[in-house]
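Data deposition worksheet. Section B asks for the primary sequence of the deposited chain exactly as it was used as input, without tags or linkers unless they were present during the calculation. Section C holds the resulting structure in token form. Section D is free text for depositor observations; keep each observation to a single sentence. Incomplete worksheets are returned to the depositor.
Section A, Depositor: J.P.
Section B:
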Amino acid sequence: MKPSIFPPHKSIAVKLGGVGRNLVIHPKMKMKPPLHKIAAFSLVEVTLALGVAAFALLAILAMVPTSLKTQQASIQQTTGNAIMSSIFADLRADLILPPGQYRHLEEDSGYQLHGHWAGMLQPDTLYFTQEGKQTGSTNQDSPPADAVFRAKITYNPVPPIGSTSVAYVVVSWPAQVNPDQPGSVPAGSVRRLLAVNR
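Section C:
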């Protein structure tokens, strides 16, 4: 009988350690699972998470056009109110002057509405830019190219009291749409009644 070229099992077991000893002596024995398992998501879990995220993103993206439209309407409403306030301030600043002198103080300032107020003439129409600055001249036939807002001031020819003047002011946008024409509907408008004790 030839001597074995391999050393005895015990020497292998000693060199391999506890796990190696068990494998050599008991070949059918399985290895112990590692104590620390690696945590990971399954493919199904990842797919479901991506589906939920995509649904949420689509819902958010669907609201973007509505929010932009609402923001634009809010900006125009704010500008319209600012224009209304400036017109009110201009009308309230008018002084009571004798006939023939009512235009004396407003030739170079304000919207030059004092004379129309005193004479109770036809309504005045003013045009304003996106920034709320007046453009063009008073009562011009067509709105200027840079006009975004239209302001119409209607004066009450019969004041309720002798010392009170009344005006109805409408600021609408866009300026190209005349709300007085049949079938013309502006995108938005601000309407106020002004009574000034003069």
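Section D:
Residues 177 and 183 are 10 Å apart (CA to CA).
The helical segments are 9-25, 43-92, 114-119.
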